[in-house]
Design goal:
mainly alpha, two-stranded antiparallel sheet, 10 helices, 6 strands, disordered N terminus
Length: 234
């Protein structure tokens, strides 16, 4: 025997009100739009900047901290919301600073490109020159006259961040490190990195480069000149 489901008067009123609300939203687009806009009300960070969309939902529960409130001792910093690409926090983001070993990603790209287009081969033997042997910082202590394959030097560069192996590969591709740097900067421009400027293949400060192989201008001055050239051409 089937039983009919019974509703209390309270349940009936709630269901009736719910159906009425849904019908009203369907019949009145303006009401729906207003409701949506209220849901997407921008959240505000401690820096005073509004954050909209998905970022607003994420920041509603937790405010974006400022550099000062975090007590960080940094020269620059950027915090980006990964799903929207929106910059939530920016501190000296456009100041020209040595990028350290992140520079090697460009060197790795260009060496790989040289292998792929047939200019180099992974098994090719490389003789270490003076500039590479005099590198400081992270290195595998290559001596002038040592011989290694491109593959061995590439692994030392990519895994061990070896500055000496990096310079050896840069010289192999372009003849000298500074000629390779020209290629790095040209490639950066093609990639849309309009304000990027490299002075070596490793990411070392100019002062840490072997004096005989340093560029004549420092990184900050060169970067400003590069930016001025870009502004003149847009």
């Amino acid at each position: 025997m089937k039983h009919k489901r019974k509703f209390s008067s309270k349940q009936f009123v709630i269901k009736t009100a719910t159906v009425g609300l849904l019908l009203n939203m369907l019949a009145s687009p303006v009401s729906s739009a207003v409701l949506a806009s209220e849901v997407q009300t921008p959240a505000t960070t401690e820096a005073g900047k509004a954050v909209t969309g998905t970022a607003a939902t994420n920041t509603a529960a937790a405010k974006i901290p400022s550099i000062e409130s975090l007590g960080l001792n940094v020269s620059s910093a950027v915090l980006i919301e990964p799903t929207t690409g929106e910059v939530l926090l920016s501190y000296n983001a456009d100041e020209a600073l040595p990028p350290a070993s992140m520079t090697k990603m460009m060197t790795e790209y260009l060496v790989t490109e040289a292998v792929n287009n047939g200019q180099l081969s992974w098994d090719q033997t490389v003789t270490i020159q003076e500039n590479a042997a005099q590198q400081v910082g992270s290195r595998i202590f290559l001596a002038q006259g040592d011989q290694h394959t491109v593959r061995e030097l590439y692994i030392a560069m990519a895994v061990g961040s070896a500055n000496d192996a990096t310079v050896a590969l840069a010289e192999l591709v372009s003849g000298s490190e500074q000629q390779f740097v020209t290629l790095m900067n040209e490639t950066a421009q093609k990639m849309g990195m309009k304000t990027a400027y490299f002075i070596n293949s490793t990411g070392l400060d100019r002062a840490d480069m072997p004096s005989k192989y340093r560029p004549e201008t420092d990184a900050k001055r060169s970067c400003l000149q590069w930016m001025q050239l870009y502004l003149l051409n847009i």
